Amino acid sequence: MGRSLIGVCTATADVRVGAALERPGSDVLGRDAGEIAGISRLGLAVESDLAAALSRIDVLIDFSSPTATIEHLRLCRERGVRMVIGTTGFESDQRDQIRAAADRIAIVQSPNMSVGVNLCFRLAELAAEVIGKGSEIAVRETHHAQKKDAPSGTALHLGEVVARALGIGFEGAAVRANMRNGKADGAIRFESVRKGDIVGDHTVSFATADERVEITHRAFDRKTFAEGAVRAAKWVAGRERGLYDMQDVLGLR
To answer: How many separate domains does the chain show?
Structure first.
């Protein structure tokens, strides 16, 4: 994602890479960020000290880990730097900290920055409102073998969108297992597959005895997530504070 973000930023009007950050101990520290991204030299070395870099940036785009993102959030809140958060897998207390920080800074947080996926979120909401009640609902997702969280943040958000549209509590409705036999009434079933180098496939389905509606998104290149994140960064740069998501950025809400 870091390489994709650098490439998209350098190709986007009115956007400049002010800092390229990696974890301490990474073997790319000190190298030119442009060369690592496979483009021309930027004259910008990859570094690990976010606190030192914050004076050079307006928006931090963060695709890291929950623990790292929360530490970055603390620094950005202190310095008044806006954030775009693409990290997934947050615990409840970490989500609370993000909401609290939005009282001081503007944040766009989304489990998936892809424009297409966010359109699917809206379509899933509409489908749930029209045919969700009385149907069997399942969310299936497939990712590369190295992805650690399952179900993915995108899959869980699809479930949350559907549950909200149906007026039911998500935690009570979610069954995070592949149920091959029988039907769990009122459940949103989740199926996760990890294999190969698949960037990300997601499907939410609504099935009745007579028909099935499926909404599917397949990502073929991580560039799509980077493009959405940079679009979100340009959008949030014009906000002072508040917690937003890609539905706000794309005008879908």
So the answer is: 2
Q: Are residues 86 and 160 in the same domain?
A: no
Helix H or strand E segment including 168? none
Q: Can the peptide bond before residue 111 be classed as cis, meaning omega within 30 degrees of 0?
A: no
Instruction: Give the active site residues.
Output: 143, 147
Distance CA 1, CA 24 (A): 17
Q: Report which residue type is found at 212.
A: R
- Per-residue tokens: 22: 């990696």
Q: Which CATH number does the domain housing residue 171 bear?
A: 3.30.360.10
Q: Is 169 left (phi over 0), alpha (psi -120 to 50) or beta?
A: beta
Dump pLDDT digits (tens) for 86-97: 998 899 999 999
User: What 8-state DSSP symbol labels residue 55?
Assistant: G
Structural domain of 158: 116-219
Contact 188, 137 (CB under 8 A): yes
Length of the chain: 253
Name which of 82, 71, 73, 86 is nearest 105 in CA terms. 82
Q: What is the dihedral of CA 197, 204, 93, 246, to 10 degrees?
A: 80
Is the pTM higher than 0.85? The answer reads no
Total Cβ atoms within 10 A of residue 83 = 25
Residues 178 and 202 in one domain: yes
Does 102 lie in the same domain as 6? yes
pLDDT in tens, 26-35: 999 999 999 9
Which residue from 184, 188, 175, 190 is spatially nearest to 140, judged by alpha carbons?
Answer: 190
